């Protein structure tokens, strides 16, 4: 049965940084907003987070600069990764599986292509409940190893990160995860079914992408996303493209 839901595409409103209250309202309403009017740079990415999320911020993770040349498509995903490193003998978390907001600032637009697209994962799963109950039951009821496909990556804990694709935080916020790293649990008695459902989920999400509205980030634009609610991706591009990325936890995160 088709799992293609109607109206999952999100067109983030463009709002100047001087109107932080309005940007905050649209983020809550739509799950995504584009903040304009700030210079490029990691400092202003942190400023943008403070403007939109304010005192709700609980923890910021290290900024990441992504430079791609003639890059391929980045498919729909939610940010989140389980990385702990040792710094001077002290464990330090560099990424968190339940980062609930992500900010992406365009430092250099591509020569051609590289448009961003955003999908409302809440609408997707709500539609699945009726259109594909078997997939919905899997997403809400089956534990997987979120990053098992990347076992052996340095910094990734050896202990499997077990979770369901759809869960809730302690404050009642729904999380809808989307990662290419998910695999069945070790010795999962239903491994074949789990692999089949992971593939079904993958195909359903990929089918969304062509029809989603595109938005081109200009230099300095910051895409702010509710990472529990929205998935995001970008089209292939030619030439160099540079973005700065900041992920964080707010008081609503798990």
Automatic annotation (TrEMBL):
Residue span(s) of domain TauD/TfdA-like: 14-241
Iron among keywords: yes
A family per Pfam: TauD
Cofactor(s) listed in the protein's UniProt record: Fe(2+)
GO molecular function annotation: gamma-butyrobetaine dioxygenase activity
Biological process according to GO: antibiotic biosynthetic process
Lineage: superkingdom: Bacteria
InterPro entries per the UniProt record, alphabetical: AlphaKG_dependent_hydroxylases, TauD-like_sf, TauD/TfdA-like
Membrane spanning residue stretches: none
Enzyme's top EC category: oxidoreductase
Sorted UniProt keywords: Antibiotic biosynthesis, Dioxygenase, Iron, Oxidoreductase
Keyword Oxidoreductase: yes
Enzyme Commission identifier(s): 1.14.11.1
PANTHER family, alphabetized: GAMMA-BUTYROBETAINE HYDROXYLASE-RELATED, TAUD_TFDA-LIKE DOMAIN-CONTAINING PROTEIN
Protein name: Gamma-butyrobetaine dioxygenase
